[in-house]
Amino acid sequence: MLRRKAAAPAWLTSRSATSAPTATGTPVGDVAEAHAIREVFGRATVTAPKAALGHLFGAAGAIEALITVLGVEDGVIPPTRNITTAGVGPGIDLDVVAERRDVPQEAVLSNSFGFGGQNVSLIVTPARHHTSRTAPTSA
User: I need a labelling partner for 129 at 20 to 30 A (CA). Which of 91, 92, 100, 117 fits?
Assistant: First the structure.
């Protein structure tokens, strides 16, 4: 099971993070992932793009990462398709997003677990706007 020290930087808390878990759509897989998220972040807000995408094998992680980046950029938490808050299983004690939420996000954790061991977790934060100097040109 995930442990807080290994899984997330200290500044990332359930108040600052939304999670986009893989949500395999299986009772055992969804509950196991929910328990891991709960152990690390507490009662976090979660959404599951895979409910709309299905299994795309190697492409799933890339598409979920893109959804995460766009959600952070636009301040949107997309809903989990085909679910209502009443339809969340009893073993899943998380804030599952059933309808689109327009809310700025400090950070989003995107978990992508694919067939064949294609597993990755990314933390996406908003871009920090800053001014940068142009490198001097040699004369």
Answer: 100
